[in-house]
Design goal:
about 240 residues, mainly alpha, globular
């Protein structure tokens, strides 16, 4: 009986740990973006969490060296993985820029969105630095966290498709909170659907080829599309 209770307690702790790891990135963004109203602070909280948690667990608890920790995330070149990533990334980039260029007035009001970004300090001297973070740092850390760390953690206890779906839902969650104040209804909610689809694709690509590099490259190209829209309509 005591053994069963201990097993239940351990399972509950593991479950709560997974829930925390799935929801904490959203909490970091909400704290920085919606409460502190600062993009630089948001980036520090959000990316600090994405960077620190996987490496702390692997290096401190699993006794991995830094090189072994990096190898756990399978960031290595594989030609087919890279080809799929580049093709998908180009498609994502053109879908983002094409859709928002054609339907800009339906998606957002330029003056209102500029004012919101100004309130969030996404302006002035910060812009180039923040854009660089979004294009260079963001894809690496998000893919390492969601498609590397969390996908590997979840697929140990459930099927790979369930793990991909859960990581994609949690990945989409904080994008939803960001999109709601930026876009008009109902486009602010509908816009999260392609985010979810991209998350599922990147999870599938990582699983099929056991490499994150294609997903990272694809993610970079998608973020380039977002920044092209920003510089075209809002800068």
């Amino acid at each position: 009986m005591a053994y069963e209770e201990a097993t239940i307690d351990e399972s509950m702790v593991r479950g709560l740990n997974v829930v925390f790891l799935c929801l904490a990135p959203t909490a970091m963004l909400l704290l920085g973006w919606n409460i502190l109203h600062s993009v630089p602070v948001t980036f520090l909280l959000f990316y600090g969490f994405l960077l620190s948690v996987p490496f702390i667990e692997l290096m401190l608890y699993n006794r991995r060296t830094f090189g072994e920790a990096c190898a756990e995330f399978a960031v290595e070149f594989k030609s087919r993985n890279m080809l799929y990533g580049v093709i998908a990334g180009i498609i994502f980039m053109f879908v983002i820029t094409g859709t928002l260029s054609l339907l800009q007035e339906q998606f957002f009001d330029q003056d209102e969105l500029r004012a919101l970004l100004l309130e969030w300090h996404f302006s002035g001297a910060y812009v180039i630095a923040l854009a660089t973070v979004l294009i260079v740092i963001n894809p690496f850390l998000e893919e390492i966290y969601w498609r590397g760390y969390m996908l590997s953690k979840l697929r140990r206890t459930m099927g790979i498709m369930n793990a991909i779906l859960i990581t994609s839902i949690c990945y989409s969650l904080y994008h939803l909170f960001l999109l709601v104040p930026m876009f008009h209804w109902p486009f602010n909610v509908l816009a999260v659907i392609p985010v979810f689809i991209a998350g599922v694709f990147w999870g599938w690509l990582r699983h099929k080829s056991d490499s994150l590099l294609g997903s990272i490259v694809s993610h970079i190209l998608a973020d380039v599309g977002i920044m092209l829209v920003y510089f075209k309509f809002l800068y």
